[in-house]
Amino acid sequence: MKISKKSINVILAIIFFIFALVQLNDPDAIIWFLIYAIVSFICIYSNFKIVPKKILVAVIILLIGYALFHLSLFIDYLKTEHKEELFGEMVYQKPYLEGSREFLGLLLAALGVFYQLKRPKEVK
Fold it and tell me: Which of 9, 71, 100, 124 has the fewest other C-beta atoms within 10 Å?
């Protein structure tokens, strides 16, 4: 069973929009809501129009660049014994937890945009 790119884009758009909504209770909600909402928009928009490759590459670079700011916190997390903490509540004494979540979220967002580079010659 082959799933069409348009169907995958709808699924990705829904997932990233849910990610955006979940961010609304975050202290820095605006930036994270916008990041995930933009990725969601790109996924849906790609079903109707071709997003220029330069824009997709620029967004990917920005997302990965921002992720690199969180890389050291992710490395700190990888050195911990209790990996399950990543899925628990935020502990202010452990900033690597939030940094790791942000790092992984940015990588997922970059992958969502990267998927758009694999597009048909024209949008039907």
Answer: 124
